[in-house]
C-alpha cells in the first residue's frame, strides 16, 4: 500500500510540477495559444502565475515532507488542496468547452483522493 501511495503522490507531484512551471514561467500568450490553456487568455496574469506557484508548492508538499521526515502530515493536506484545485480546473475546462480535459482533471482528483485517504487513514 505504501508503494502505491508513493507512486500516486509522485505522479501527482510530476503533474503539479509540469503545470506549475508552465503557468509560473511561460508567457501568458504562449499558454493561451496552447491546447487546454485557452482559459488563460481571459484570466489576470497574476492569477495564472499564482496558480503556477500553488502547483509548484503542491509538487513539493506531496513528496518533500516524507522524504525529509518533517511534517509528513502535509502530504494528505496537500492532496486535499489538490482535490479543491482540480474541482476548479474541471469547472474552468467545462466552461471553455474542454470536457476531455475536465475528465483528465477528474482522474487527477481521484488519485489525490486516494493519496489523502491513504496517508490520513493508513
TrEMBL record:
Keywords: Membrane, Transmembrane, Transmembrane helix. It comes from the Bacteria. The chain crosses the membrane at residues 73-94, 101-120. Pfam families: DoxX_2. It is found in: Membrane. It is a multi-pass membrane protein. InterPro entries: DoxX. Its main location: membrane. This is DoxX family protein.
Amino acid at each position: 500500500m505504501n508503494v502505491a501511495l508513493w507512486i500516486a503522490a509522485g505522479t501527482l507531484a510530476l503533474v503539479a510540477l509540469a503545470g506549475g512551471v508552465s503557468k509560473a514561467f511561460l508567457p501568458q500568450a504562449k499558454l493561451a495559444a496552447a491546447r487546454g490553456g485557452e482559459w488563460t487568455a481571459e484570466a489576470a496574469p497574476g492569477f495564472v502565475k499564482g496558480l503556477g506557484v500553488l502547483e509548484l508548492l503542491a509538487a513539493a508538499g506531496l513528496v518533500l515532507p516524507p522524504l525529509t521526515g518533517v511534517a509528513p502530515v502535509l502530504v494528505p493536506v496537500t492532496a486535499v488542496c489538490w482535490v479543491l484545485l482540480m474541482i476548479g480546473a474541471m469547472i474552468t475546462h467545462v466552461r471553455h468547452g474542454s470536457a476531455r480535459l475536465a475528465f483528465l482533471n477528474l482522474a487527477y482528483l481521484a488519485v489525490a483522493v486516494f493519496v489523502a485517504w491513504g496517508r490520513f487513514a493508513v
